[in-house]
Amino acid sequence: MSHDNGKMQAEALFASGQLYRDIGEIIYDRRTALDWTQVHLAKLARLNVSVIRSIEAGRPVSLETLSALLRVFEIDPRDILPQGAPEGTWFAHLDLVASATQLKKTMKQCSDYNLAIQKLRDIIGNISKTFNLPEIPVRLPIDHYSHSVAFTSGERQDLLEIFGRRIQIFRTLQGATASQIAHKSHVSLTSLSLIEAGLRNPSLETVYRIAEGLSVSVYYLIPGIHDDADLLRSLDMTAWAMSAQSQLEALADLESIIGHLDDIANH
Question: What domain of life does the UniProt record list for this protein's source (predicted)?
């Protein structure tokens, strides 16, 4: 677990550099057992051969690079990486089965919801025109719902986005802000924000720091063949619902404003 005023477990885990040396040895053993050259492995993993040399020499590795190699060798992260923070079970109270059942019922209301949203857009648009407000910018669909939060082969380009989304999921489920998790993880808020957005490739040590800050096992964050796709999708939907719930306050404010405008119109 994270201790704000003391050393993190992640720091102790990486202090000697032994973990990186162990990873390098495993990659070397797997490669030579298959009679592959470093050049051949680099091509399969779409990496520069100098990166392969560096890893086998026991130097630090990033999440994206490690994941590429795990995918090539079809290695379960749990087979080569220590757990770090204790297995995350604080979210076990969520009744995900019941949530999925309720979701199916709720989805039947989508047509009514879409109609209501369109009417709401028209109302806000008319209010904006009345007061000569600038047009509301068109927003694209949320990108992270265009693909699964679970690992699938051939999705290397999305790996960092998937990793970032998983951080958001566990942070949201705890009701924590990015600033709070950054503080607990001993990483800067800027770094965490970029990682959550899938715009930064973190080192393996940073991955462990964030997992510790979230109080979940690192295995929940690193995409791989060990993923429980159903669990991850359920957690994703739960986190999305929690985020959407917070928007109800804005709708309540809008309802009050519309009521006030209605009063003005009738006088």
Answer: Bacteria
- Find the CATH number of the domain harbouring 45: 1.10.260.40
State residue 88 phi and psi, 5-degree precision.
-75, 110
Task: Answer yes or no: is 41 within a domain.
Answer: yes
N-terminal to C-terminal alpha carbon distance within the chain: 61
What local confidence, expressed as pLDDT, does residue 196 receive? 94
Host domain of residue 13: 9-79
Number of domains in the chain: 1
Residue 128 has a pLDDT of 81
Burial of residue 232 (number of CB atoms within 10 Å: 0-12, 13-18, 19+) = buried
- Is there a domain that residue 51 lies in? yes
Higher per-residue pLDDT: 260 or 102: 260
Q: What are phi and psi of 65, to 5 degrees?
A: -65, -45
Query: pLDDT value at position 257?
Result: 77
- pLDDT score at 178: 96
Kindly state whether residue 27 falls inside one of the protein's structural domains.
Answer: yes
Question: Is residue 19 one of the residues assigned to a domain?
Answer: yes
Of residues 91 and 121, which shows the higher confidence score? 121
